[in-house]
Design goal:
This protein is about 15% helix and about 30% strand. The protein is an alpha+beta fold. InterPro entries: AB_hydrolase_fold, Pept_S9_AS, Pept_S9A_N, Peptidase_S9_cat, Peptidase_S9A, Prolyl_oligopep/macrocyclase.
Length: about 775
């Protein structure tokens, strides 16, 4: 769940030039645009199924689960899904502005999006590019070793190397992972279908691009030009080549019959527990059945494996072992020159207990640089020499912990330097350090937002992608070869959004007190014509879990909603994330999970009390762990505070989450419902089991997808049925939207994102009765 489960609002382009006439708007509190008649939900069959749990306080606890049958992939469940989706669709489509909203999104999504360029081993530059409405980003590359100059080059630049849009006609196939061999001649890439976390790895010579032939309408065949290698059942894995380019490491799970070639679309619809992960080595040109098993641990079926190879010398295998989503891991290292790849590798178990997190950054021979939270909740950089006997090893501090800033990332660059990204009060700062830990300079000091650095130790430059609430994206370059420091940092490429003027918006950060007195920061964004006079609606987004920070982001969709309806965007950085280090994370976990809900509700109350928003006009939104957050707050918030809620792909049954797919890994944050002690704090928090019977709930829309094998859709199925049964007379709709051929969010096509945004934001507007009026 950690890392991959963060699901910030999707940046969907919105609102074109023609809508600028709507900039001056006033909002009238109105009845819902789509009248709602209670007592008309589809009937959901209730069974007498009961689960028995052990409680430290009460002994055995019998918990009814009348919709347990919705956990099964049965014909009855499929019929329920069809009926619910049609019921919800009928409501959403009654919104007279819904189609206009979708059209505007589609029109204003037509702006180019791109990544930082990266120089690969074939001495060509590679980058991703989407012209605007393409289903998936296309991988482009330069025609030679020269870095493209986008001041003079028109369009995406270079040539197409791999176009995933040619894999399917509906855009539901996406690249899940990829890596270039050091020879520069081969590229391994994983393809996920319909949003599943499972993917299949293929290998293609870099001399054989996968692109549409000019002048031809015939789609190319994916296997044309590719090697016969096909690696299946891969999940939560990187692809790590050995230095000789003869093969790569990958993680896979046991064979599943439902993944047969004739039933490919069933990958992602299973709910079986993900366990017994295995680390394999694949040698190019051999069948997967001959792959070499490197690691598995039958005594610890929950363990998972992540392999790296030391960057410069390529001599060491670096294995990180995790057992759940907590920031703790084992770190084992092996010398390739002294080992044969296989189950008998002699591992130097540098870190052999789950006490803290250690991340490989770089090495000079046997001297390794590691980023860690060991005795440093805000993280620090240490070094250790593997040449020393294990009992004599000393972890020497290189960059000490900064008590006032979270150390988010470190990358080695230009041989003798580190690029270090800190998060100070949720704003990223980039610094240059030398290998001794001396801070040399800060770069991009005028930037406010989130930064992602792309660098290689052997290169004399690095790129940084910069983004913010009012900045759709900048790729900046730092060049060590420039003699003058002032000339080293420059803008390489800038995102231009034709239909939305970022200068019309402004963002600020405020601090508020939560229920227990803890100070929590919150970003507040508004259109400059929106007044803080207590009348505006608010779109409040949050996550609060798994040590994931919600940094400033760009969302054309949300900005358009704000512009059209005079709304504000509020992003409280509640406990459970890593905004202030591991202590901030732990304060929102297990028996302290209620702090996340308290923080989020307190944010809504602050907005109302300080006239940023109107009472009853605050709309909550979150996904994954954020979906849990929204659903829990809907149950708990004071009646009348909220105006609407959209909970996406949420973990809603906290008594069952550990029984499906990768859910067992989340017990580090949620607790283990099968442990009597943990059960006693989990049960009162579970949204499914705590729907209030005697209160009015705000309009609520649950979003899920049929191929979500991360947070399986049964969570939302059961919660929707429970809401509708418990509160049939609720004066506001309680609905569920179920996407098809889609997963937890990764790899979703642009078209699906557009339609989902129109439904999500359209539901909020129609259920709260918002209208945009010309002044």
């Amino acid at each position: 769940m950690r890392g991959a489960l963060v699901y910030a609002p999707t940046a969907l382009g919105f609102l074109r030039h023609a809508l600028r006439a709507n900039l001056h708007t006033s909002i009238r509190a109105m009845p819902p645009r789509t009248p709602w008649a209670p007592n008309r939900y589809p009937t959901s069959r209730r069974s007498d199924h009961v689960d028995v749990y052990k409680s430290e306080v009460k002994g055995k606890v019998h918990v009814p689960d009348p919709y347990q049958w919705l956990e099964q992939n049965s014909e009855e469940t499929e019929q329920w899904v069809d009926v619910q989706e049609a019921f919800t669709r009928a409501y959403l489509d009654q919104n007279p502005e819904r189609q206009t909203l979708e059209d505007e999104i589609r029109q204003n999504e037509k702006f180019a999006k791109f990544s930082s360029p990266s120089l690969k081993y074939d001495d060509r530059w590679y980058w991703s590019h989407n012209s605007g409405l393409q289903a998936q980003h296309v991988i482009y590359r330069s025609k030679d070793e020269k870095l493209p100059d986008f001041d003079t080059e028109i369009g995406p630049g270079g040539e197409v190397f791999f176009d995933p849009n040619l894999l399917t006609t509906d855009g539901t196939a996406a690249i899940a992972a990829s890596a270039f061999a050091r020879s520069g001649k081969l590229w391994a890439y994983g393809i996920s279908r319909s949003g599943s976390d499972f993917f299949t790895v293929y290998v293609r010579p870099t001399s054989a691009p996968f692109a549409q032939k000019e002048g031809s309408d015939v789609l190319p065949v994916h296997t044309d030009g590719a090697l016969p290698d096909e690696i299946r059942f891969v999940k939560f894995s990187s692809v790590t080549w050995t230095p000789d380019s003869k093969g790569f490491f990958y993680q896979r799970f046991p064979t599943r019959q439902s993944h047969g070639s004739a039933e490919e679309d069933k990958a992602g619809t299973e709910t079986d527990m993900d366990q017994n992960a295995m680390l394999y080595y694949h040698r190019i040109g051999t069948p997967q059945a001959d792959d070499i098993l490197v690691l598995k641990d039958e005594l610890h079926p929950e363990w998972m494996w992540h392999m790296e190879v030391s960057e410069i010398d390529g001599r060491y295998l670096i294995l990180s072992v995790s057992r759940d989503t907590a920031p703790k891991n084992l770190l084992w290292i092996a010398d390739i020159e002294k080992n044969t790849i296989g189950p008998n590798i002699n591992w130097d178990k540098l870190i052999d207990d789950f006490d803290a997190e250690f991340t490989y950054i770089a090495n000079d021979g046997t001297k390794f640089y590691l980023m860690t939270n060991k005795d440093a909740p805000q993280y620090k950089l240490v070094s250790v020499d593997l040449a020393d006997p294990p009992e004599q090893r000393v972890f020497r501090e290189v960059i000490p912990e900064d008590k006032n800033a979270h150390l988010g990332a470190i990358t080695a660059v230009n041989h003798d330097y580190f690029v270090v990204t800190y998060k100070r009060d949720v704003i990223d700062e980039i610094y240059i350090y030398d290998l001794s830990g001396k801070r040399l300079s800060r770069v991009g000091a005028d930037f406010v937002g989130a930064a992602r650095v792309s660098a290689k130790r052997q290169h004399s430059w690095f790129f940084a992608q910069l983004i913010g609430f009012t900045n759709p994206g900048i790729v900046a370059k730092y060049d060590f070869t420039e003699k003058e420091e002032a000339k080293r940092w420059s803008v390489y490429r800038k995102t231009v959004v034709a239909g939305l003027n970022s200068d019309d918006f402004e963002a600020k950060q405020v601090w508020y007190k939560s229920k227990d007195g803890t100070r929590v920061p919150m970003f507040v964004v508004r259109h400059k014509n929106t007044k803080f006079d207590g009348t505006a609606p608010a779109f409040q987004y949050g996550y609060g879990g798994f040590s994931i920070s919600v940094s400033p982001f760009w969302s054309s969709a949300i900005l358009t909603f704000m512009q059209r309806y005079g709304a504000i965007l509020a992003v409280p950085n509640i406990r459970g994330g890593s905004e202030f280090g591991e202590e901030w994370h732990l304060a929102g976990t297990r028996e302290r999970k209620h702090n996340c809900f308290d923080d989020f509700i307190a944010a809504s109350e602050y907005l109302v009390d300080n006239k940023y928003a109107a009472r009853g006009k605050v709309a909550l939104n979150g996904a994954s762990n954020g979906g849990l957050l929204v659903a829990a707050c809907v149950n708990r918030a004071p009646e009348g505070l909220l105006g609407s809620a959209v909970a996406e792909v949420g973990v809603l049954d906290l008594l069952k989450f550990a029984d499906f797919t990768i859910g067992r890994a989340w017990t580090s944050d949620f607790g283990d419902p099968h442990d009597p002690h943990d059960f006693d704090f989990i049960y009162p928090l579970s949204p499914l089991h705590n729907v209030p019977k005697d209160r009015v709930l705000p309009p609520t829309l649950l979003l899920t997808a049929d191929h979500d094998d991360r947070v399986v859709p049964l969570h939302s199925f059961k919660h929707a049925a429970t809401l509708q049964y418990t509160l049939p007379a609720n004066p506001h709709p309680l609905l569920i939207r179920i996407d098809k051929k889609a997963g937890h969010g990764a790899g979703k096509s642009t078209d699906k994102k557009i339609k989902e945004a129109a439904d999500r934001l359209g539901f909020i507007a129609q259920s709260m009765g918002l209208e945009a009026k010309h002044s």
